[in-house]
Amino acid sequence: MRIAIGGDHAGYELKKVVYSWLEKHGHEVNDMGPYSDESVDYPDYARKVAESVANGEHEQGVLLCGSGVGVSIVANKVKGIRAALAFNPEIASLARQHNNANILCFPARYSDPESIEQSLENWFAAAFEGGRHERRVSKIEP
């Protein structure tokens, strides 16, 4: 699967964990920045990842910032994106099962490598359940 990843300076170190995990599990990963821990503006990178998923260049995306909230807000402003803040592995599963999230966002300042790896495992293992959830997801976009 083609996956885009990005974030900000607060997420830089954990983005390396995400990149490594995704590659190890056979995904084609495109790191869209940033490429250091120097201060940057998260909207620039979150928008790049979200637009690449929305236009089909990538199938899924992963974003990281200090709280995960900023990148979630930016990504969700792009038509066709359903970005979910995964603050634990169970939420990552539900993001796919109930919301058919196509971007997973992590709060880097409140996450550790193990929880991120388990969240990724859960997200990729889960399937969208459809049914009543399909009705709800269809109401997200006009």
Domain count: the total is 1
The helix content is 40-55%
Largest beta sheet, briefly? 5 strands, parallel
Give the CATH level 1 class.
Alpha Beta
Model regions low in confidence, pLDDT < 50 over at least 5 residues: none
Estimated structural class: alpha/beta
Widest sheet: strand ordering:
2-1-3-5-4
Secondary structure: number of strands: 5
- Mean pLDDT comes to 96
Order of helices and strands: EHEHEHEHEHH
CATH-level-2 architecture: 3-Layer(aba) Sandwich
In CATH, the homologous superfamily goes by the name: Sugar-phosphate isomerase, RpiB/LacA/LacB
What gross morphology would you assign?
globular
| Ends distance | 28 Å
Radius of gyration, CA atoms, in whole angstroms: 14 Å
Indicate the proportion of strand residues. 15-25%
The third-level CATH topology is Ribose 5-phosphate Isomerase B, Chain: A
Give a structural overview.
This protein has a 5-stranded parallel sheet with strand order 2-1-3-5-4, sandwiched between helices. The longest helix is centred in the first third of the chain and has 13 residues, at 12-24. Helix 1 (12-24) links the parallel strand 1 (2-7) and strand 2 (28-31). The chain has one domain: 3-Layer(aba) Sandwich (Ribose 5-phosphate Isomerase B, Chain: A), CATH 3.40.1400.10. Helix content is 44%, strand content 17%. It has 142 residues and is an alpha/beta fold.
